[in-house]
Amino acid sequence: MSFLRTAVRSTIPRTSKATISSLGAVRTKVSLPDLKWDFGDLEPFISGQINEVHYTKHHQTYVNGYNTSVEQHAEAKAAGDVKKTIELQQHIKFHGGGYLNHCLFWDNLAPNKQGGGELPVDTAFAKKVEEQYGSFDNLIALTNSKLAGIQGSGWAFIVKNTENGAVEVVQRYNQDTVTGNLKPLVAIDAWEHAYYLQYKNVKVDYFKAIWNVINWAEASKRFDA
Ligand SMILES: [Fe+2]
Question: Which EC class heads this enzyme's classification (predicted)?
Answer without folding.
Answer: oxidoreductase
